[in-house]
Design a protein that fits this description.
The complex is a heterodimer of chains A (246) and B (637). In chain A, strand 6 and strand 7 (114-115) form a beta hairpin. Chain A folds into 2 domains: 3-110, Roll (Ubiquitin-like (UB roll)), CATH 3.10.20.30; 118-245, Fumarate Reductase Iron-sulfur Protein, Chain B, domain 2 (Orthogonal Bundle), CATH 1.10.1060.10. In chain A, the strands form 2 sheets. Chain A has a 5-stranded mixed β-sheet with strand order 2-1-5-3-4. Chain A has a two-stranded antiparallel ribbon with strand order 6-7. The longest helix of chain A is centred in the last third of the chain and has 15 residues, at 231-245. In chain A, helix 6 crosses helix 8. Helices cover 35% and strands 11% of the residues of chain A. Chain A is α+β, with helices and mostly antiparallel strands. By secondary structure, chain B is of the alpha+beta class. Chain B has helices at 15-22, 43-55, 93-103, 110-130, 162-179, 245-252, 316-320, 330-342, 359-365, 367-385, 440-462, 473-492, 498-512, 519-539, 551-575, 599-602, and strands spanning 35-39, 58-62, 80-81, 155-156, 183-186, 189-197, 200-208, 214-218, 221-224, 257-258, 263-269, 292-296, 313-314, 354-357, 394-403, 406-407, 420-422, 604-609, 618-623. Among the domains of chain B are: 267-400, Alpha-Beta Complex (Flavocytochrome C3, Chain A, domain 1), CATH 3.90.700.10; 473-602, Fumarate reductase/succinate dehydrogenase flavoprotein-like, C-terminal domain (Methane Monooxygenase Hydroxylase, Chain G, domain 1), CATH 1.20.58.100. In chain B, helix 4 (110-130) packs across helix 11. Classes of the chains: A alpha+beta (246), B alpha+beta (637). Chains A and B meet through helix 1, helix 2 and helix 3 of A and helix 2, helix 4, helix 5, helix 10 and helix 11 of B.
Chain lengths: 246, 637
């Protein structure tokens, strides 16, 4: 298959960026979009040009490294798939595909399609944990947990921290990301001792990083590669209110 | 050099307790005076960094990822073993110990394995306390499943994402310590060399992947938790960035490399579809519970699978192993698949695949039953290949998946360089010649949470340290050597990108140092690998500069080390004239084509010493003594 690519190129966070057109020729339909970029990059290297920079690692949809806005959609048109899982066969032969980085103020561009997502790290460091030290914990079966609560906690915990929710949101909100962690730990009894501090600290940090707030468009859920439900945002809001009232 | 395993005295069940009592402690108030440099923050590194910081040590942690949550531990699917015996089916620490030593084909150290089994229960407790959402039963207690051929149900799991959830647990503990300021975490730093000063490991040189700067990090001890070297074979189930540079640089600074040839090949991966392919995807081996593996009886049969009648199919595993059938261990299933393809019976466009057919199971139990059990795997297969596995059989082929070999460590997880500790997949320790399912996560977390926090204290408390500042002479000298290597890479200005050499190396490794190794093949590999290495140094083209983000330079640097490590793997495989676990030498097999171990001559850990550029490595042997689990032949007939 052949494609025309319009790729965002930008030297570093302070330089001005712009679209550059490339052609991708003879791409097998089974190739992933990142493998197509490998092929394009190989051509660039052979011509002595700098390859297109993009983050990637596991290439099986679990590490959360990759993230491209593909023709306007975070992680492309496929539901429930990360960028690395998008195969070229879903595009038309000859199609023009635009590739852009995540666009959000708290995610400065490092180069081309790579962005700095350490703002999400700082939110986690502020409170995305249960404060237990290693050792001295009770037996794993000491606390029974309802199966449905454990399952719902797992639904939230499936978040891969890719930032697609932020990129998809017109407000650049990280609410789905924060909600996934707050909700997971609020659903489990182990997380209850700190539920108040946790939600307050994480939200405070989220605001300090410059993420926007939620206005219920559900774009985050639509683009989430792990299909995390916006119902967790509702729980986050309840936790936040609860922390303020109680 | 004398290898001292430092296995404590006493009966096996008392060794770790005795040892913990005998080790010296660092006074609580003095712990903050010690800095520990942790390289790699996957399961083993994140758990170690968090546990050490909780104790009060100053911890500096480095990762080449932007976040510890990106480490490849995240991709582990199946589960984590612990002999909790929650299922009342007869499990015990001793049984897990026994299964692991036997599964490793008697090439692991008994004392280490016993300790691993002992602490594994604590891991589950720890993870639950952190909020890891393990699968539960309706009564609210934890669910277990049987995995990887184990006869008891001892595997804890979180859907098909156990590695992700355990890593996120360790990551939360690590993040908490970063937030508290007890861990200084440096993302996007790749360790490019080890700094040894006065014979002690005192720090590392790392390249800042964003600015290109070479930075030095100094401490009183260095902990490497940098994962396995499966990407030496190019195509594997490893993540793209997974590499051997940290351990290879440690090897070149004096750490012995244990059993490099022990690599595990996983039988159920989606086959390569073309030369563009960048990695292979694993499909859980649970599929073999209900799928039947076959190839056509006729060579080079180009018919579609549904056109091949039942009596023209060869269900070769069922034919060769009537009692275990399709459930033979990973190494056996892998080797037989390769044999079928090599003999011309392979299927699919590349003829390098065999069928895994669910039509009988669908006929027997219905499509809905299969969907409930394997739905996500069938979807994944469909996503990648655009073929519907409900309608036609899957095509599968083996792929490199895990490396049991690694840096040789003693019972304290310290390498032969004093002060250099190696954890998780990066060390050689607990899996012998073959790793059982659901035990990689177990080992990574055991090393990090429950072993290194004790053993490192003894070293710190009993060692006299001179000051070692990040700008001291040994740091400067090592940095200068790294700078020289980088300069050399840019100076070649050849015609081929680094990846081309990696692919060429991968082909040689897969063809001659993969499954079914022979003396001729290995000898050939030992001719070809140095050739590729020479071509690399004459013809590699590294674009850009070393002064900023340069993914091509990163790649080239890693390939330099793969090209050297590959040779050591082949040397080790050639020297080990027996078949055991993942290492199958075609010359050493029983009449039925099974692995023929040679306990008289090879019941040892092969620990290789670096002796200089272009010189032959020297073999040291750590004899393995089996006091508790007596070696027997593995048989699956």
């Amino acid at each position: 298959m052949n494609f025309t690519l319009k790729v965002w190129r930008q030297k570093d966070r302070n330089s001005e960026g712009g679209f550059v057109s490339y052609t991708a020729k003879d791409i097998p339909p089974d190739a992933s979009i990142l493998e197509m970029l490998d092929v394009v990059n190989n051509d660039l290297i052979m011509r002595g040009e700098e390859p297109i920079a993009f983050d990637h690692d596991c290439r099986e949809g679990i590490c959360g490294s990759c993230g491209l806005v593909i023709s306007g959609r975070a992680h492309g048109p496929h539901r429930g798939a990360a960028t690395c899982e998008v195969r070229m066969r879903i595009f038309r032969d000859g199609e023009t595909i635009t590739l852009e980085p995540w666009r959000a103020k708290p995610f400065p561009i490092i180069r081309d399609l790579m962005v700095d997502r350490t703002a999400l790290e700082r939110i986690m460091q502020a409170g995305g944990f249960i404060s237990v030290k290693t050792g001295g914990v009770p037996d794993a079966n000491a606390i029974p947990i309802r199966k449905d609560a454990a399952e719902e906690a797992m639904d939230a915990a499936a978040c891969i921290g890719c930032g697609a929710c932020v990129a998809a949101c017109k407000n650049g909100s990280a609410m789905l990301f924060v909600a996934a962690k707050v909700s997971q730990l609020a659903l489990l009894p182990q997380g209850h001792a700190e539920r108040k501090e946790r939600v307050l600290k994480m939200i405070t940090q989220m605001d300090a990083e410059g993420f926007g707030t939620c206005s219920n468009t559900y774009a985050c859920e639509a683009e989430c590669p792990k299909k995390i439900s916006v119902s967790h945002i509702a729980r986050l809001n309840r936790e936040y209110l609860r922390a303020g009232v109680l | 050099m004398k290898l001292e395993s430092k296995i404590p005295e006493g009966p096996i069940e008392k060794k770790w307790d005795n040892h913990r009592f005998q080790m010296k402690l660092v006074n609580a108030a003095n712990k903050r005076k010690y800095t520990i440099v942790v390289v790699g923050t996957g399961l083993a590194g994140a758990s170690a960094a968090a546990a050490l910081a909780e104790l009060g040590y100053e911890v500096v942690a480095l990762s080449y990822h932007e976040s510890p949550r990106r480490a490849h531990s995240i991709a582990a699917q199946g589960g984590i073993n612990a002999p909790k015996n929650y299922t009342n089916d007869g499990d015990s620490v001793y049984r897990l110990f026994y299964d692991t030593v036997k599964g490793g084909d008697y090439r692991a150290r008994e004392a280490n394995v016993y300790r691993l089994a002992q602490v594994s229960g604590n891991i589950i407790d720890q993870c639950v306390a952190q909020g890891v959402p393990f699968a539960r039963e309706y009564g609210g207690l934890l669910d277990n499943r049987s995995f990887g051929g184990a006869q008891v149900s001892r595997t804890f799991y979180a859907r098909g994402q156990t590695g992700q959830q355990l890593l996120l647990g360790a990551y939360s503990a690590l993040s908490r310590q970063i937030g508290l300021g007890k861990i200084k975490f440096y993302p996007r730093r790749e360790m490019v060399d080890l700094v040894v000063s006065d014979g002690l490991a005192r720090g590392v040189v790392a390249r800042n992947l964003l600015t290109g700067e070479l930075e030095t990090y100094a401490g009183h001890a260095v902990v490497l938790a940098t994962g396995g070297y499966g990407n030496t074979w190019y195509l594997s189930t490893m993540a793209k960035a997974s590499n051997a540079t940290a351990i290879w640089r440690a090897y070149k600074r004096g750490a012995l490399f244990g059993n490099p040839c022990f690599a595990q090949i996983h039988p159920t991966c989606i086959p390569q579809s073309g030369p563009y392919q960048s990695k292979l995807t694993l499909m859980s081996e649970s599929l073999r519970n209900d799928g039947r593996i076959w190839v056509p009886k006729k060579k080079a049969d180009k018919r579609r699978p549904d056109e091949i009648p039942e009596d023209e199919r060869d269900y070769y595993l069922e034919r060769l192993y009537p009692s275990f059938g399709n459930l033979v261990p990973r190494d056996v299933a892998s080797r037989r698949a390769k044999e079928m393809c090599d003999n011309g019976y392979g299927v699919g466009p590349t003829a390098m695949a065999v069928y895994l057919d669910f039509s009988d199971a669908i006929k027997r139990n219905g499509k809905a039953w299969i969907e409930e059990k394997y739905g996500n795997l069938f979807d994944m297969y469909h996503e990648i290949t655009a073929e519907d596995p409900y309608a036609s059989p899957m095509r599968i082929y083996p792929a490199i998946h895990y490396t049991m070999g690694g840096i040789w460590v003693d019972y304290n997880l310290m390498s032969t360089v004093p002060g250099l500790y190696v954890l998780g997949e990066a060390n050689f320790s607990d899996h012998g010649a073959n790793r059982l399912g659901a035990s990689a996560l177990m080992q990574g977390l055991a090393d990090g949470y429950f072993i290194i926090p004790y053993t490192i204290g003894d070293y710190l408390a009993t060692t006299q340290f001179k000051p070692a500042k990040p700008d001291a002479a040994p740091f400067k000298e090592t940095t200068a050597e790294v700078r020289e290597r980088i300069k050399k890479l840019f100076s070649i200005k050849g015609k081929r990108p680094p990846d081309a050499f990696h692919r060429a190396l991968g082909k040689v490794m897969w063809d001659y140092v993969g499954m079914g190794r022979t003396k001729e093949g290995l000898t050939k590999a030992l001719k070809l690998i140095p050739q590729i290495r020479q071509e690399f140094w004459e013809d590699v083209k590294v674009v850009g500069t070393g002064n900023d983000l340069n993914t091509e330079l990163e790649r080239a640097g890693r390939i330099v080390d793969f090209l050297e490590l590959a040779e050591l793997i082949a040397i080790d495989a050639l020297h080990r004239r027996e078949s055991c676990g993942g290492h199958f030498r075609t010359e050493y097999q029983t009449e039925d084509g099974e692995a023929k171990r040679n306990d008289r001559d090879y019941a040892y850990v092969a620990a290789w010493e670096y002796t200089g550029e272009g010189k032959k490595p020297v073999l040291h042997k750590e004899k393995l003594v089996f006091e508790y689990v007596k070696p027997t032949t593995r048989s699956y007939k």
